[in-house]
Amino acid sequence: MVSHLGVNSENGNLGEQVLHAENEVVVVEEDVSEKLEVSKSELDDEAGLDSKYSYLVMFGAFVNILAVFGCSNAFGIFQEYYLNTLFSDKPASDIAWISTISISVSLAGGIMASPIMHRIGIRLTFVLGSLSASLGLILASFSTGSIAALTITQGLIFGFGSSLIINCSIFMPSLWFKKYRSWAIGIVSAGSGFGGLKYRSWAIGIVSAGSGFGGLVVGPILENAIRNLGIKWAFRILCFMTLAITLTTSIIFKPRQPGFKPANKRLLNMKVFLHPYTLFLCFGGFFAELGYAVLSLYFTASMVAIGQSRSTASNTILAFSAASGISRLLSGYFSNRFGPNTVLIFAMSATSVLVFSMWLPFKNFVVYYVFFVLTGLLCSLFFPLGPVMIANNYPLGEVSQVNGIMYVFYGLSTLIGNPSLGAMFDKIGHRESYSSLIITCGVCFIASAMILLLQLIYSRKYMPDLKTGRI
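== Riboflavin transporter MCH5 ==
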């Protein structure tokens, strides 16, 4: 009996052990199944990264930026024509409102792109921008008799459409480029590690280069159109060009993951906005944009003031645009080699030195030309490297909004700065001297460099795990 009970007990224990073992097997199988599901999900999440289609998207974004920023970078041609021909009897401070509203809304309006994309998707947001920008240009062709009318059409309407085009185009490389993965090891978490980010920084740099080369393409078109056909047809040609390019590229603009939308429903996420890294970027960009505005709006006019022809002065924009485009193409290399923050500190400081050593003391064509080419290589680096720093260091769902916040500060810089620059030229320069504007330009770039230096110190102390590798 005892033995029987013992056997039964052992058998009972054995049964329990077998049952326990079976449970363990089931658990193991469930764990394996779970892991396989996770791996499959991760693989699906990474599908399409750095693919051939990624490069098609990048090319489309490049062409969009070329068209839209080309109009902005060529605004010096508009400004010179407005000052010396169309509104020669009007105060420069009044004329400045056209460029002020156009550029500031183009930049600051981008903050609206993220909530719009969340509601209607990336492609429809981009199409809305395309139609709005084209409408602004065609209406501007019928508004050349009034500063106020041009401020609304070329400024507000075109600016709003441009802001959506710019934000969507800058955002797309972040969706389609992250890193090349080792299939043997498995999926590496998105965005981590310096090796993967180098491709994204190159992609954003190439897209941003469109804004540099834009002036190279749009500048001659605009100048020839104004000279041969008049200002009205110049606007219409820009309208047709913008509409054709942006509507065509909208066909290829889609999120890599079907149904993806930015996470931000609200216009402004205060937690993201008040992050010190965001604030350093924004205020550094504020002063960089203000210094850039002086160069883009008044350099060609200063060339005319030292005795050069309008055609010669306009041609310097081509050299500046070419230098800017080459610099932006190489920004990815500089970013990976030295770190984007370090590159920007050097670029802003060197630009300030050039302003005070070449533009301010001299009134010589050769010196001016060399100065403009060198500044083209340096001063525009904030525009490609700012989005690189954002794409590298923020979650993907926040990238569009942080880009928008940074561009708001660009826009505020234009909104506050351009009328002030116009008033400065009227009252201090008496519409003849550019010295006060040149000094302001140099001070702005050194201020940007100092803020970026503080950002570098902060990053090293409080953000040791920055995903950018080199800071």
